[in-house]
Amino acid sequence: MDCRNEEAAIRARLSQLPQVGSLSFDLPARRLVVEHELPDPRPLLQALTEIGMSTSLEAEGTVAGGDACGSACSAACGGSVVSLPSTHVFTVPDMDCRNEEAAIRARLEPLDGVNLLEFDLRAHRLSVVHTLPSAEPILQQLRALGMCAHLGNTTEVAPPSSPDADAACGPCGKPEPSLVSVPAASGNTTQFLITNMDCPTEEALIRKHLGKLDAIDRLDFDLMNRRLAVQHRLGDPAPVLDALREIGMQATVEREAGASPQGQATYLIEKMDCPTEEALLRKALEGLPGVAALQFDLMSRTLTVSHSLDDASPITAAIERLGMAPVLRDSSRPAPAVTSEFGSGISKSQWLRMAAAGVLAIGAEVMAFSGMGESSLPVVGASLAAIALGGIETLKKGWIALRTRSLNMNLLMTVAVIGAALIGQWPEAAVVIWLFGIAEMIEALSLDRARNAIRKLMDLAPETALVKQPDGRWEEVKAETVPLSALVRVRPGERIALDGVVVSGASAVNQAPITGESMPVEKNPGDTVFAGTINERGTLEFEVRSRKGETTLDRIARSVQDAQGQRAPTQRFVDRFASVYTPVVFALAIAIAVIPPLFFGGGWFDWVYKALVMLVIACPCALVISTPVTVVSGLAAAARRGILVKGGLYLEQGRMLRSVALDKTGTLTHGRPSLTETVPVASMPREEVLRVAASLDALSEHPVATAIVNGYGDRPHATVQRFEALAGRGVKGDIDGQTYYIGNQRLATELGVATEPVRTLLEQFEAQAKTAVVLATAQQALAVLAVADTVRNSSKQAVAELKRLGVEPVMLTGDNSKTAQAVAAQVGITDARGELLPHDKLEAIEKLAAQGPVGMVGDGVNDAPALAKSSIGFAMGAAGTDTAIETADVALMQDDLRKLPEFIALSRRVGGILKANITFAIGTKAVFMVLAFTGHASLWLAILADMGASLLVVFNGLRLLGRSAPTDGRAAG
């Protein structure tokens, strides 16, 4: 229970119990206090369980002073405790950052019986207070997340007993806070822009260094955008900045969340649209007295300046001196949903320096090869110049790694280069560091492609919209300035700027960017349109329902960016492997360099050279970089297909699903009744039957009547006189002087018109899980009409594809069993379970989960308990639905179940590429290590091999961004 939807559902259910008085909700604490006159609370628990609420009774008793006694003290206060909570402490070696904490919270908090979670990330410990019979369900959930957890010590919360009961209670009989306390909330969140942080090596270095600061609570990395969000309890972010700069990170404060005593000035700067202008502004403003932080949004050309000045005029003047014509804007406007600067950061001067370094390094090799000594002055001079031009950054990073005792690839390369120089191999030292620098730059450009795949999501929505003004004129204005309820016009061929509802006009809209639909969708008045979609033909006018920054497209882009910050299980494995592998190889290289010359008479030069080659080969770059690139590419590829995945964890877990539970209504079917058959049983033509039936039912609000009216369409109705509703049977009325009846079998029997053919048709339609009604006069039946919730055209194909992928589909529905079996037969499902209440669905999911990972497909709200219990929760038709996008693990943006097997196939393809990359990276290292040990590999050949491996795994991961959509299991490799 954490939102108003659940509160409304609980109020509606408990209001049906006559002895229930007032209800008091505390949504943040997930508590409900009920005043009632029931002899015991079991009917309350049963009622809550029926609507899918996982409920436990804390205490019952009298309310004193507005506070009920807590469970720890209820014995002393005259209440009764339902269950005694236990505390289990788990050691979770994989749990080392707040992303893992968030994933564990999302998995464990919905568990029935889990009361409190307390995390100690530094010690890798998790304490769980619960009322479960054992800790096994918690261990299962942790292992399902890819966490290698094991049970530590167990304690039990002892009930107070006389005479010490009062000692355990706080004032007024409330429990001691230590028994029910929750971790203190973090103070501030500061976002930093770190221009030279773009790979997992820098992330690992920052994690290690900032982890030493006591006041740091959480680090959220966004490598794709070079951002770091730090939750801390510092009065000032300066210590974080100092710590980052100590390890060579070029960091600046970009945004501070929450209330700030500083003033804010937001500028609209028309001439600011690329990183060059951003750099100019940063240089001009960061040294300005009183300026605390800068936040850039190049997409909307806005700059937000946090300052402590009494007047913003010095800031305005500084911007004007750059010739940028700033316009001071209302600071109350919403902030952009996604930061959109994704520049590579590789300048023309860097390319020129690397080109010069390459000429000098290769020149040194040529001079040495032509007969000059490798330690001659010209060769050494050219080599030193090449190292200074192309390798100084690597050497700086290597020094920082040594100073912070971080064994990363920069340190390995630095040691190899310095070692080569010390043994006189100057040309090779220059070539090695130059090739490594080139490899780093090419990798950065490769990563930019993954970044740009996400940026393209934001580029879909135009920056301007044609808005109707109060005087009736249509004017082109900035999309971010358009208010809610404004009227926007979209001409043929234009992109839609904001979410809204069509007011006038008709057209076909290409919704592929949002829902992944291949065909344009017809739009008429009352239909929803989304920002970023394309108006194919006809002019549409729509009313704005979401402002810039709050549209479905913004939420998708925000979710994709958030998802990339979560480390997938494979990435956690690679990080752990690299953390052990690198020091082992370093120690092995030292042993190779020292042991043979000291103990076996080997030549120092030969064995030191072999050790240096091994160090270069051992560089874990290819291994470390392959996973995040592949995962981000997979997330972006899924989003482009209309599948919104909330993290690398779920992208990887999708391939392991063994079964999928499908809700019937709204998932396999359209979720609304429609007219399926009209069978005349007398001489009246079918068109006349429909005209009479629709004319009568147009005056009724029954869902069956609505389906018949919709089936008739927009054709004119007949005039109905003396209309009358017949309770529980149907309706009647006069048309053209004739009295007609339309209703169920009971009405037909009462009229005496339920002949054998009519009864046969009614039984036939009932066997097909359809609702049938009879149109009749007082003398004879005229026709039988059937209404049903029709199956989606895509459902049968989706079920067939799931089976081909080896995933067993199971239907779980609250509808009657006959209807469930009929729908299941149509789509090809063999396991259909009907008449299920929410808690029955929970039990079904638990049983399926015991056989292997299980997915649950629903609408993201009504099926929330089952969605939370499943390994992966899928929300159907999430486009435009805030709740589904925010809560589901995977949101299928279109009402097309075929997206589900497409996601599983994509997940298998991602898994195949990850395995191939890891195998290739480790295999390459092993082969070249053997070659190095036997003396068949040189330093420059080693760096070429490492560079080649890194680029191959990156490009292999980027293949996921290709246009072809995986549709079957063959895509898994």
Give an account of the 3D structure.
- It is a multi-pass membrane protein.
- Keywords: ATP-binding, Cell membrane, Copper, Copper transport, Ion transport, Membrane, Metal-binding, Nucleotide-binding, Translocase, Transmembrane, Transmembrane helix, Transport.
- One of its GO terms (cellular component) is endomembrane system.
- Belongs to the cation transport ATPase (P-type) (TC 3.A.3) family. Type IB subfamily.
- By secondary structure, the protein is of the alpha+beta class.
- The protein is built from 34 helices and 36 strands.
- Among the domains are: 4-77, Alpha-Beta Plaits (2-Layer Sandwich); 86-158, Alpha-Beta Plaits; 184-258, Alpha-Beta Plaits; 260-338, Alpha-Beta Plaits, CATH 3.30.70.100; 348-455 and 570-622, no CATH class; 464-547, Calcium-transporting ATPase, cytoplasmic transduction domain A (Distorted Sandwich), CATH 2.70.150; 671-790, 3-Layer(aba) Sandwich (Calcium-transporting ATPase, cytoplasmic domain N).
- The strands form eight sheets. The chain has a seven-stranded mixed β-sheet, with helices on both faces. It has a six-stranded antiparallel β-sheet with strand order 16-15-17-23-18-21, with no helix packed on it. A six-stranded antiparallel β-sheet has the order 26-31-30-29-28-27, with helices on both faces.
- A hairpin with a 2-residue loop joins strand 28 and strand 29.
- It is elongated and about 115 Å long.
- The model is unreliable at 59-84, 153-187, 257-261, 330-344 and 964-973 (pLDDT under 50).
